[in-house]
């Protein structure tokens, strides 16, 4: 055994033994309690635990990430529907021909960053500038956020010091040795007049978009989740306790101040107190659920189930957004095995002239991805998918309580495609898909288009409603802002409640253009910085 492998093994053993001791001696009070070890919560926990005088508790409903289905990039689909997936289900949607979509979300250390496709997409300049305008705080602007991205990245591609950093905790690399089908995607983009870029997280996201080989959180052929990047190296520290298989039921609030959490651990209901703050990083479904069960939400919604109202915030659970996608499929002329995660090329573009930012996004997937409904149309055994969707959906959904019991799931009224504008954009999106997939660049690789084919009018709209699936980018249900429907302010403090902050995708005023993992890292970084400043830590 090499010296480095021996050191890694010894370090892992020390970390495991340390966490076993800390959990066995679980305290009744910590300085900061972070609920949720996903993409944002992992960042908050690590940054605060860098202060050795701060006692940090990180609570996670799921378990360990030490599994091949997590660590092997190619096996990510095996996590969907498994114990590492919350398994949420949206309500039947009349705008999707009555279909009820599954809403997978990560449950376990790393959250979504442990079960997703590992794409690192920062969001568009206009997204962050919109956040800053809504919050009334320039610290959320693109120029400021760009500096945070540069600080946290360990970029492994061609040097680009204006946009990329090389010394941070987040290992980011272009997809390694991409498939010929990924290169064909870039060639096809150029054929139809879409520019290509060396990487997708710089100039490409400051204008109308473009195409590129994807940036991925993969290191030495293994998933590098945000939990692995931030928390895993810190598990041997005496001031960071990671409590898994523990569900947060509600926030404990006394005199309009969060003083701790009520959790279920090892079959028992426990109360754990927080000296400084409680941070909710449970994701855009569980965070508003915990808020509502804590008495924070719309007065009418809470009293419907006899939950005492602590703070009337009608925006809790409202403004639900997600990227909706439509799988267009082509059959390979000869089978081409997927490489890396099976998704190595990405494209952002505009659906119509006059837009200054992309409103459609494409992730090429190197195997067929039909919906439950379009599978019946016939899917080739060997093929690839243009997994293309709406980067700026106009539709809005909501989450509703179904019981006063915290163990009972919410009703998810996703309302995808409910706004007519989304159908117009979806038609343009599918048309662009077909132009790309049928371009000359793909001719050597494909036998032909499997779906949707050359259809128009009602037939195309029907295909869109049948094909629609989620990108699993649930967000915006406890939005940051200054209007009556806002839940948190620019510092991510919950309005009307002291010592309670939210740090996850639920605070987005609108969903960012692209995958949401990287923006969640920024939300975590900003939250940790603001907590430290608020308490002089």
TrEMBL record:
Substrate binds at residue 471. Residues 106-129, 283-297 form the Glucose-methanol-choline oxidoreductase N-terminal domain. Pfam families: GMC_oxred_C, GMC_oxred_N. FAD binds at residues 116-119, 248, 472-473. GO terms for molecular function: choline dehydrogenase activity; flavin adenine dinucleotide binding. Keywords: FAD, Flavoprotein, Oxidoreductase. Its cofactor is FAD. This is Alcohol oxidase 1. It comes from Methylobacterium phyllosphaerae.
């Amino acid at each position: 055994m090499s010296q480095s492998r021996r050191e890694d093994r010894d370090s892992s053993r020390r970390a495991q033994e340390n966490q076993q001791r800390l959990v066995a001696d679980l305290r009744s009070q910590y300085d900061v309690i972070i609920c949720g070890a996903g993409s944002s919560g992992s960042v908050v926990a690590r940054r605060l635990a860098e202060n050795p005088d701060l006692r940090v508790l990180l609570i996670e409903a799921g378990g360990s990430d030490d599994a091949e289905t997590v660590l092997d990039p190619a096996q990510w689909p095996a996590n969907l529907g498994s114990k590492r997936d919350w398994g949420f289900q949206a309500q039947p949607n009349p705008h999707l021909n009555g279909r009820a979509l599954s809403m997978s979300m990560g449950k376990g250390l790393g959250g979504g960053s442990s079960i997703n496709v590992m794409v690192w997409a920062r969001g568009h300049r206009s997204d962050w500038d919109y956040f800053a305008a809504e919050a009334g705080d320039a610290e959320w602007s693109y120029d400021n956020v760009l500096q945070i991205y540069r600080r946290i990245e360990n970029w492994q591609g061609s040097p680009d010091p204006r946009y990329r950093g090389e010394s941070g905790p987040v290992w980011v690399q272009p997809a390694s040795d991409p498939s010929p089908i990924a290169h064909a995607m870039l060639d096809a983009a150029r054929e139809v007049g879409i520019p290509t870029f060396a990487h997708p997280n710089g100039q490409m996201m400051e204008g109308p978009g473009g195409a590129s080989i994807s940036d991925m959180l993969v290191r030495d052929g293994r998933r590098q989740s945000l939990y692995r990047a931030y928390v895993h190296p810190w598990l041997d520290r005496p001031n960071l306790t990671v409590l898994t298989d523990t569900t947060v039921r509600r926030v404990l609030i006394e005199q309009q101040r969060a003083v701790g959490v009520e959790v279920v651990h090892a079959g028992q209901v426990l109360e754990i107190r927080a000296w400084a703050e409680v941070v909710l990083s449970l994701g855009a479904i569980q965070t508003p659920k915990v808020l509502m069960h804590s008495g924070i939400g719309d007065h009418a919604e809470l009293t419907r189930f006899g939950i005492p109202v602590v703070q009337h915030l009608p925006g809790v659970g409202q403004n639900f957004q997600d990227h909706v996608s439509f799988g267009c499929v082509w059959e390979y002329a000869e089978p081409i095995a997927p490489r890396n995660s099976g998704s190595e090329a990405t494209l952002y573009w505009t659906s119509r002239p006059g837009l200054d930012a992309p409103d459609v996004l494409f992730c090429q997937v190197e195997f067929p991805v039909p919906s439950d409904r379009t599978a019946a149309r016939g899917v080739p055994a060997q093929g690839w998918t243009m997994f293309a969707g709406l980067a700026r959906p106009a539709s809005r959904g909501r989450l509703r309580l179904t019981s006063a019991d915290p163990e009972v799931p919410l009703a998810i009224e996703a309302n995808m495609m409910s706004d007519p504008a989304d159908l117009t954009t979806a038609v343009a999106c599918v048309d662009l898909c077909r132009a790309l997939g049928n371009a000359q660049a793909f001719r050597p690789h494909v036998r032909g288009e499997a779906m949707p084919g050359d259809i128009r009018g009602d037939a195309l709209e029907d295909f869109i409603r049948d094909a629609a699936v989620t990108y699993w980018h649930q967000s915006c249900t406890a939005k940051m802002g200054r209007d009556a429907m806002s839940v948190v302010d620019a510092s991510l403090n919950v309005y009307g409640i002291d010592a309670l902050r939210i740090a996850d995708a639920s605070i987005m005023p609108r969903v960012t253009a692209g995958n949401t993992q990287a923006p969640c890292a920024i939300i975590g970084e900003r939250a940790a910085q603001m907590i430290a400043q608020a308490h002089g830590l």
